[in-house]
Amino acid sequence: MWRKQITMNKNVIIAQSGGPSPVINNTLRGIIETCKMFPDKFEKIYGGWHGIEGVLKEELLDLSAQQEEEISLLRTTPAAGSIGTCRYKLKAAQTEDMERVIQVLKSHNVGYFFYIGGNDSMDTANKIAKLAHERGLALIAVGGSKTIDNDVGDSEFKLVDHTPGYGSVARFWAYNVQNANEENLGSSPADPVLVMQVMGRKIGFIPAAARLADPKRQLPLQIYMPESKLSLAELTDNVNDELVKSKRCLVIVSEGFDVGDIGEAKDSFGHTEFSASMFTAQQVIVNHLNKVGIKAKGMARGQVVGTDQRDTMIYASTVDLDEAYKVGQNAVVIALEHGSGYMSTILRRPGLIYNVDYDKVPLDVVANSEREFPKHWIAANKMDVTDDFVKYARPLIGEDWVSVPVINGVQRFARFEQIFAGQKLPKYNLQAGK
């Protein structure tokens, strides 16, 4: 069976794809440090510079040549600046790209390929694993799970309980809603309504995390996930009902909440890029509320948080950081003990005390997978979540603040030396860009 193929090539490529997260670099660190524990199994460790694009362009950052201090600092370095990420997708028709990947892997004696990312990234890892097997190339390909949306895997949580990245973004919103409430509480005579837009194109895990700010439901808080299927008119009625009751209202709305055409931009995966679009759901809602009028003095105001919800280290969950690292470690263990064609995953143990196991799931099962937000976690009024969701998400945001190194008042992030492997192949232009 090809998944248990043993490779004699010992060089390693690690790459990552898709949107960044506060903890993605700790998965990278977990893979690097674990590979270094087995010098008889792994030799040179390379980083694909900006994901699969770097592999195709033969831009391989020498991670073995980096200082240990810089690798250690990956723990508290957010986003993906260390080796870069991309949104380039390997499609079946891109035969030139496929052939180029094989050429690069062969030229650099690569026997192990680790790809960190979400569902589309796992599709890329799966394609490379299968192609290598078909070509008789001794390659072991393993995925490391990552996505802030928490949408990888199954809706029953049997394959993937949650993905690294989600816990930190959930913590970001729990704390930002708390702080926004303090603002709204003080300024409500003039600004009774605050509409905050949250990431989440098609699934509601991120907006749902706003409830973690107020698990006892003491705040005038309304949460609108994509799954709510409520209209702008219904949202308006709900807000006015809360204004009559509480004189103020906090509205958390997913970027994917349907407010009509907002001039959506698309990325190369075909996903809507709301932060790069002409308008936002939040703008439409605020404009509408102020146009039709609200049942309180003052105006509705809005706040659109951008990429800082996925790249701000001070909000990172220590639980998320530790799990991200272990997902990376587990990816290496999978490569050594089980072979090619798997993704490293987190499974929750049953019981009242939160604990997890690190397991594996076949890449072809999770490639392009999209779980759904459980319907029983959506409140009957469709503008809140149930206590069962709170029980699920609460352990993921942790307790304490992460300690980020600061030098001269500035955060100290990992900075790799730009040492690249010597190029052995002709220059290559990405097939999708031709």
How is the topology of this model organized?
Elements (H helix, E strand, L loop, with lengths): L10 E6 L7 H13 L8 E4 L3 H5 L3 E3 L5 H5 L22 H13 L2 E8 L1 H16 L5 E6 L20 H22 L5 E6 L6 H4 L12 E4 L7 H15 L2 E6 L10 E2 L5 E2 L7 H12 L7 E5 L3 H4 L6 H20 L4 E7 L7 E7 H4 L20 H7 L12 E2 L2 E2 L23
Parallel strand pairs: 1-2, 1-4, 4-5, 5-12, 6-8, 6-11, 7-8
Antiparallel strand pairs: 2-3, 9-10, 12-13, 14-15
Descriptive notes:
This protein is of the alpha/beta class and 434 residues long. It has 13 helices and 15 strands. The protein has helices at 24-36, 52-56, 68-72, 95-107, 119-134, 166-187, 205-208, 232-246, 281-292, 308-311, 318-337, 363-366, 387-393; strands at residues 11-16, 45-48, 60-62, 110-117, 140-145, 193-198, 221-224, 249-254, 265-266, 272-273, 300-304, 342-348, 356-362, 406-407, 410-411. A seven-stranded mixed β-sheet has the order 3-2-1-4-5-12-13, with helices on both faces. It has a four-stranded parallel β-sheet with strand order 7-8-6-11, sandwiched between helices. Strands 9-10 form a two-stranded antiparallel ribbon. Strand 12 and strand 13 (356-362) form a beta hairpin. It is elongated, with a radius of gyration of 23 Å. 50% of the residues are buried. The model is unreliable at 274-278 (pLDDT under 50).
